[in-house]
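Fill in residues.
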């Protein structure tokens, strides 16, 4: 086993699982977590869930699955450099989007609005709900029975009111504790991946152009470098060379800043990580500001582009219509969810069953279901 830093999470001293199991013989506890995530149904469905572009808009755009794999790749790289547990980092990275609805953030916003009177909907909480109870694979327990450390990484943020109902995994939000460095790292690797890879998808879709990206200095500087080194390079490879340099810079900055913070706070073990008043994994002020400029640019030029907005409006209508139909007539639910709905006794818990069903759909399944329910010519 690789020599880990003293402040890393350790599978040997894990806070354990909700349901007792014998320890694995051929892998660590965190490897078992990672493997269970990869084999679960919610992970496979990410292949057909929107990142920015709806699945049927093109085969080359990123999905929630490819995004999660890219986050995990970045996470493992940084974890190895910082001597953190790579398997735990990868597990959290792979699981962080399990609870996302179809149609990305547009779908989440619509489902949250539908659930407003019943506690709302938030994809981080839904991810935890999936790994804790919704996945049905094992005879001895519901969910995936992940370790505490994997579960706390999945729950990136949470309101105090909701945290109070989650038991030990919600405790840190009530007392101001930090999660493990691996969980902190996975959160920022997610940011690195979507900020930079969304540029790639935006260029591929024709929503962005290299020249307008010159307005963003974090992109302009490496673009000038690439053009000086390869003046005749085509735009596709130019964009790739620029983006890989941007990601490399973000990773180097992340490693340098995190190392400096660990030393400044004299962190010796994971208990000190949790007790630290501020997160230890982070970017420099300079890079943080540049990423902020990049985010604002993407929101203005890409996420609010009329083509993206048009699809988002359609997606929200689909999600709202589906939720309304199942809520008004539970017999439209498939048997597995109808049984769960009938086992509930309040409007709030029944609405949660409907939300679980809708959130678990892929983009294309949601569109197909919508046609079945609302198109008189569609077969049931």
């Amino acid at each position: 086993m690789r020599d880990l830093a003293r402040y890393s999470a350790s599978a040997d001293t894990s806070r354990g699982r909700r349901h007792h199991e014998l320890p694995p013989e051929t892998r660590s506890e965190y490897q078992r977590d990672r493997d269970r995530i990869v084999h679960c149904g919610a992970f496979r469905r990410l292949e057909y869930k929107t990142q920015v572009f709806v699945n049927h808009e093109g085969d080359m755009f990123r999905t929630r699955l490819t995004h999660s794999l890219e986050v995990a790749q970045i996470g493992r790289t940084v974890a190895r450099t910082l001597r953190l547990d790579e398997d735990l980092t990868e597990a959290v990275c792979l699981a962080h989007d399990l609870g996302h609805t179809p149609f990305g953030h547009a779908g989440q916003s619509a489902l949250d609005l539908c659930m407003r009177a019943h506690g709302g909907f938030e994809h981080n909480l839904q991810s935890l709900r999936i790994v804790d109870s919704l996945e049905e694979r094992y005879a001895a327990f519901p969910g995936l029975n992940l370790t505490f450390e994997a579960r706390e990484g999945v729950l990136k943020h949470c309101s105090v009111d909701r945290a109070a109902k989650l038991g030990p995994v919600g405790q840190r939000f009530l007392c101001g504790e930090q999660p493990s460095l691996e969980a902190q790292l996975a959160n920022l690797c997610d940011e690195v991946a979507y900020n930079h890879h969304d540029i790639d998808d935006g260029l591929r879709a024709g929503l962005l152009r290299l020249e307008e990206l010159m307005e963003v200095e974090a992109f302009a500087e490496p673009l000038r470098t690439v053009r000086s080194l390869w003046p005749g390079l085509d735009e596709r490879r130019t964009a790739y060379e620029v983006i890989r340099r941007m990601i490399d810079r973000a990773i180097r900055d992340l490693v340098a800043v995190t190392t400096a913070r660990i030393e400044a706070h004299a962190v010796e073990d994971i208990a000190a990580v949790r007790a630290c008043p501020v997160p230890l994994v982070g970017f420099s002020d300079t890079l943080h500001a540049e990423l902020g400029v990049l985010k604002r640019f993407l929101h203005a030029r890409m996420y609010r582009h009329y083509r993206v907005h048009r699809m988002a409006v359609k997606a929200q209508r689909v999600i709202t219509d589906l939720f309304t139909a199942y809520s008004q007539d539970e017999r439209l639910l498939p048997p597995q969810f109808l049984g769960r709905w009938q086992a509930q006794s309040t409007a709030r818990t029944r609405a949660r069953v409907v939300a679980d069903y809708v959130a678990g759909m892929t983009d294309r399944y949601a569109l197909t279901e919508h046609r079945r329910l609302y198109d008189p010519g569609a077969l049931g």
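The mean pLDDT is 93.
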